[in-house]
Amino acid sequence: MSQQHYDDGDEQMSTAKESIDEGSSRRFDRFRSFLRDFLTNRKGFAGTLLLGAVVFISVAAPLIAPYDPEAYGVGPALAAPSFEHLLGTDDLGRDVLSRFFYGGRISLLVGVVSGVVATLVATLIGVPAGYYRGRVGRWITTAIDMSLVFPPFVLVVVFAAYAGSSVWNIILILSLLSWPIPARTIKAKTLSVRENDFVESTQALGASDLRIMRQEVLPNILPVVFANGILQMVYTILMEAAVGFLGLGDTARISWGTMLYFAQKQGALSSGAWWWMILPGFGIVLAAFSFILVGSALDEVLNPRLQRRTWGDD
Amino acid sequence: MSKQIQERSADTAGALLSVQNLSTYYSEDETDVPVRAVDGVNFEIARGETYGLVGESGCGKSTLGLSLIRALPPQGDIVDGEIRFEGREIGQLPKSEVKDVQWADISMIYQGAQNAFNPVKTVGDQIREPLRVHNIVPEGERERRVRELLEKVNLQPDVAEQYPHELSGGMKQRAAIAMAIACEPDLLIADEPTTALDVIVQAEVLNMLQQLQDDLNFGMLVISHNLAAIMKLSDRIGVMYGGKIVESAPAETLYDAPEHPYTALLLQSLIDPRRPPDQVETIEGTPPDLRDPPSGCRFAGRCPLATEQCRDMEPPLEVVGEAHEAACFHHEEVSEL
User: Fold this and answer.
1) In chain A, what residues touch B134 (CB-CB under 8 Å)?
2) pLDDT tens per residue across span A83-140
3) Does the model's ipTM exceed the 0.90 cut?
4) CATH number for the domain that contains residue A276
5) What is the pTM of this model?
6) Which of B74, B69, B75, B81 is closest to B34 using CA atoms?
7) Which domains are present in chain B?
8) CA nearest to B118 within chain A
9) Does residue A20 belong to any structural domain of this protein?
10) Cross-chain residue pair B129–A205, CB shorter than 8 Å
11) Count of domains forming chain A
């Protein structure tokens, strides 16, 4: 019987280790090969780099910001970029670059937390919606469709006005409102996975529905879940920026959206203070774009059928 | 397994599996006209015996197999009849009460083993699944058991760590067999075990099934449209047409002296390499609509022997010879076809 060998130094090395702890070493190997595939993927590499930059400026903001972002009058009002203030100052003489660094924190926080929560909810609801046929599936699908009719943006605005626009309120409302679309995508993918013989054969095995959804369906839709999760983060980052831009965000905290709001409100454009508007806009685009790159690379690498090709090339 | 042998006729009590008047219909909802995929089927399988079920696509043979293991799709329902497995009725019980039988006692090799494996899990992981679900082998020994099973079907034990796409079609089919015998079932259902395999691998797989049966002494139900493969493997053969068994006989008898015109035509349609393609016999017409089957014999529309009687009345399955039954009013004329 012909048996496949991968001529790969790493794999050989791990074969020796395997006698010690077979299971975990194999898992580690798989993770390493995933990491290698991901970083050799052009989009994955670029995405990781950009996302790394966004995360870095947000996390390291206190260390790298040249000025206190909240301090008024660290420079003249509306000063153009100079060596003192690399990206100028706003109408109150605050350093724009420092505010830009800090602003990334809210964008990332809102994006990641509500993206993850929305995707979890979407998976918990979408998988059973696709898996169960007949009445149960129809009921869940109807529930998803009904949730789809709520216009998230309007509700965010109303909720922010009613319950206050703290960051956590915005995260809550974005999480609660943005799951139906990914839930539908996940449902559709589950529908196609469900039709596979291996699902039928696991049913014939006497396994419970819960077990089949977890063990057979979920691993197969995981790439879709990840891709959706990333898109969800992009969506929530943009939503947060939009809410901030409308002045409905948490104005007590710096975010790229609220920076744009103040710039627009104080007439940055008419007074020619382009630096004040461009930087936060650039941050929003950068964050969204890096997430999209990472998501797209994950999709390519996690799909086991596409993976085979890279293995064959080794 | 407790053998509660009911008070039944002697031959039935001895059977591993006895199916009486089984009917399985498909319908979307209550208002839908059901598709009578299996309609009043009787047969028995003894321990160590191989029963072949042959018929063209859509005749209900796969549905019959899925009924036995109680893995019908949700639209399918056993509407009548009984399935007795080692004397225990398993056809009418709710699915939740037969989970202990599924795979542990009756297992199945799925049609198209190519798709019977989850692409994102290792082969070993999947063969281990029935052991896990039925908790048959203690957890620490499952790894070893999987390797044993793979060896039994002539695969390298290392295959356990590979993913399905790394295996050839024949290897996958053998892995599917390993999974089917994981819990040492008493009855193995093989749905199209050789379809989509090349002829050499087909022979290999058939030999392997034969050999495993000799070793493990399970009863086997082989479902196929490939008459040649069925002939090789089976002790008895049932020919299915339009949801009914129209003829059943020992394999040799069926081959030498079919008593139902459908069987006879099916045998004539076997491809003989020496015959030019234009002389290969085909059966004219299409199978009946199982939502609204004809009132008489279901084959009447395509049968060269059909008469008025055939269209009006349904011929019962009658004994026509030793261990040989056929459902045809004109079975005596079949040899002239």
Assistant:
1) 206
2) 878 888 888 888 889 999 999 999 899 999 999 999 999 999 999 999 998 789 999 9
3) no
4) 1.10.3720.10
5) 0.76
6) B75
7) 13-336 (3.40.50.300)
8) A198
9) no
10) yes
11) 1
